[in-house]
Input
Amino acid sequence: MELTKKRLNEFAKTFTHLTKKEIASRANDYKTERGLLKYLERANAEDEESHNKPLPIYIELDVNWKRSSVWGYNPSVDMRWEDADGHWHYLEKAGYASGCGYDKLSAAVAEALNRFKNLRYAVRNRDFKKSPYGIRKSDYSYCYFEGGVGMSCYPSIMDWLGYEMKHVAWNDTYDKWVIIKKSERKRFK
Output
């Protein structure tokens, strides 16, 4: 379906949680405006729900390294976090990476952190020209954590987002990071 510029702008005003590029790209998937509208309503409602969840104030990333006969050691990230409402959440295998030729650890951590759509949405109006290496804003989403860029950039990304990130435990097959919202540091010391 072909969208006029006027109609695209109308859709962008109606479906505020979707970008214009995302709306335009999805228009090609539908033959009628009615089908596109149903998709946009559903996608906007899902994004709005995830964007309106309380922001995390404390995050633990547990990385377990498992040996693969083909790719060597591969990281799997389990996540536990407390949100601003005081509720705790746990997600197993929030991030995973395998293969070779890139930083698998930062790829798995990026996959896990990208699950926080509400955090990514909260910083949508920040100036990304001054953002640290490893976080990007695309035309199709608000922003995202890049994978494969190395773990050394994540503390500066978290600092830019208003969090503090520390590598608190490690051995040959385990790593643990703790991320705390700066305004909540006293609570977790």
User: Anything to note?
Assistant: Residues 106 and 151 are 5 Å apart (CA to CA). The chain has two domains: 5-51, 56-188.
